[in-house]
Amino acid sequence: MSKGVASKNKAKKGTPPKKRSPWPVIIGVVVVIVLISAGALVLTQKSKTSTTATTSVTGTESGKLIILYVDQGNALVDTSNYTTFLNFAKANGFNTVFFQIYRSGDLLFSQSDLTYFVNTAHLENLKIYFSLYFTASSQLIPTSIYTLGEDGINLDMSTLSDSAQSNLLATLQQNYKQGKTAITTTNFTTTLKPDILVLETYSSTDQSYIHSGIVAGVEPLALSTKQEYTSQYQYALSNSDGVMVFDYYGLLKTGY
């Protein structure tokens, strides 16, 4: 109670002073307790948020691609374990999967399986690109995959000559209109222009090639520690249009 209020309530001389009510004191104590409790709750929530942020391996930035690649030559992902894979992708912050369905001229799955992969990924709010791995210029793009609803098709063809790569991309761009085109390449100075260009910048010495306009790559198996993986991942994400992790098997094996 302020001094001014106290003087106004001062009793007249010769008159017994009025007994003060205990309620203002009680109310004041309650208010103080509530304020202290609220402050403690805010601090607790901030602490929880900070802990979550520092323990997350991956992060997201608005509008950027966070891609998890599946190489079927490392570990098979099919209809039996596909939902496990999708759950892993979502739990680790990925918004897109490059799912390899074609290797060295062979289409690995039936049309019904491919449709299942697309529909299930979309139900989980994940984008899916069919990835095609080429090892010879005689191998052709399977046209049967064009209309299955995938978000795009990725050409993985770094072992081919420049002219063979150019021809494959031109064929894809001419005939595939339902989704986006993508390329994953180890040629950091390629002149090819798909919708999405992923440079496989798997070494820290490759960071000078990371820039806006491309998606940078990170490979867990090429790195010695989780700290090194996290650092390279965050650099790729911050300095390009996204990040592609190669691959699912590598993350499982390393535990990063």
Describe, in plain words, how this protein is organized in 3D:
This protein has 256 residues and is α/β, with parallel strands linked by helices. 38% of the residues lie in helices and 18% in strands. It has helices at 3-8, 23-55, 82-91, 111-123, 162-175, 226-239, 248-254; strands spanning 65-70, 96-103, 106-107, 127-133, 152-156, 180-185, 196-199, 215-218, 242-246. It has an 8-stranded parallel barrel, surrounded by 4 helices. The longest helix is centred in the N-terminal third of the chain and has 33 residues, at 23-55. The chain starts with a helix and ends with a helix.
Summary tags:
256 residues; alpha/beta; eight-stranded parallel barrel; 7 helices; 38% helix
Instruction: Give the total of beta strands.
Output: 9
Spell the H/E element sequence. Answer: HHEHEEHEEHEEEHEH
- Report how far apart the termini are: 60 Å
Q: Note the main sheet.
A: 8 strands, parallel, barrel
Helix content: 25-40%
Average pLDDT figure: 84
Question: How would you sum up the global shape?
Answer: globular
Strand content: 15-25%
Any idea what the radius of gyration is? Answer: 30 Å
Number of helices: 7
* Spatial sequence of strands, sheet with the most strands: 1-2-4-5-6-7-8-9
